[in-house]
Amino acid sequence: MAVWSQIQKSALYGELRIDAEFYKPDYLNADRIIREGNHSRLGDLLASLYRYPTFYGFEFVSEGVPCLKGEDIEATGFVRPKSGDCVTEGISKRFPLTIIQNEDLIISVRGLVGKVGLVGTELQGAQISPNLIRAKVNKKIDPLYLWCFLNSSFGLMQFDRYKMRTSQETIVSSDIKNIIVPLMDEELQKSIRQHVLMAREKKQSGEALIAEAEAILTAALGLDRVDLTPLLFYEDTFAHAAARLDAEYFSPRMQRVIKTLSRDGLTIGNVAPLAKRAFKPVAGQPFDYIEIADINTSGTAESKTVPGEDAASRATWIVKPGDIITSTVRPIRRLSAAIMPEQDGFVCSSGFAVLRPRDIEPEVLLTYLRLPLVAELLDLHTTASMYPAISTADLLRIPVSLPNTETRAAIIAKVRKSFAARAESLRLLDEAKQTVEAAILGTRKEK
């Protein structure tokens, strides 16, 4: 069915946008609804809006302040560096205006356009990459309410409208400032703040439980007792090194890790073979798609609904509850997730290996794959430079050791409690967004 808008020349967005997509009926209707109530331009609600300037250059260093990227903004809008504990990458503190503070908002302006993250105290003092903008909110509005609105359907629709669809999607600062924000009463803003704070507390509780599960497994496997002292040089026999010549693999510290994990004589392939359920998209049939960027730090995965005709070539594997998916691209980032019952039949990217636990509980396998030393071992098997990836054959040959039944039960309990906390966090956030959206529509009805 054809969809079109007919507008007056005087209603054009200056002379900057004459593309038909900018004037879609849904965009115009959402804009009209917000403007019917008390509202303001986003630019008038910000004390500052800063981006890392290109003339300063952008220098990655091995040590420095943490550097946040667009991929560090989770689907929920909370911010958590996905590099985990395995990477110490940062940048020099060369531009103080882009050093973030508690309750700042960071906005992705290139690639992952429209992702808005909320910064907590644990990331205060971090730097942002050139693909992000730091937004500091003034005293006219609660920053947590503003963040919640920008992540609601009304906020996301405006980001989508202002995108410039070139070779890489982007959005400019002037358009961000022109986003229209509804101004709700103080009581509603306080209610939204409380929901967001509780949601963040639940999220952090879930992450702490996952960390406890990892600590239990690390101790049970004896990885906490492995000598990890780095050496400047070492030697090995040609017979042992015939298949590989990279020095990192033969470092004594990693050989000790491999020996510790090999004591049961098992590999990942022995306990969790690959599940290859091929997906074939069908035009007119939408599906839920999980990409690498959708994996969060709590061992779960978000998704987005995609029309069948718009399926990416990477949409490859169908997943089932109980599966564990792990990224084969840059495994050092520890991006593994358990598939939940409500995700039955979802589709994941070819960048994942889909593992079906057989002689190991899903929660234990998930925890194992997320251990920093295991991630480092996976990374040793990667090839290529720009997108280092481990082959599924090498992944299945990674050694695995199983703790006793009692330890596995403790890990399972921790992980399941973590998943429950995560679910409660998502419920609170959804409730907050629905409250904001209902208030916008309610204001319209009252008028």
How many β strands by DSSP? 19
The top-level CATH class of the largest domain is: Alpha Beta
Low-confidence blocks of residues: 84-89
Q: What is the overall pLDDT average?
A: 87
CATH topology of the largest domain: Adenine-n6-DNA-methyltransferase TaqI, Chain A, domain 2
Task: Report the structural category.
Answer: alpha+beta
- Report the end-to-end length measured between terminal Cα atoms: 32 Å
Number of helices: 12
Shape type: elongated
Rg calc: 24 Å
The proportion of strand residues reads: 5-15%
Count of structural domains: 2
Task: Provide the spatial order of strands within the biggest beta sheet.
Answer: 2-9-6-7
Sheet with the most strands, sense and barrel status: 4 strands, antiparallel
Going by CATH, the homologous superfamily of the largest domain would be: DNA methylase specificity domains
CATH architecture of the largest domain: Alpha-Beta Complex
The helix content, as a percent range, equals: 25-40%
Summarize the structure.
The chain is an alpha+beta fold and 447 residues long.
Give your account of this protein's structure:
It contains 12 helices and 19 strands. The protein is 34% helix and 14% strand. It has 2 domains: 9-182, DNA methylase specificity domains (Adenine-n6-DNA-methyltransferase TaqI, Chain A, domain 2, Alpha-Beta Complex); 205-414, DNA methylase specificity domains (Adenine-n6-DNA-methyltransferase TaqI, Chain A, domain 2, Alpha-Beta Complex), CATH 3.90.220.20. α1 (25-35) packs across α3 (153-162), α2 crosses α5 (186-221) and α5 (186-221) packs antiparallel against α12.
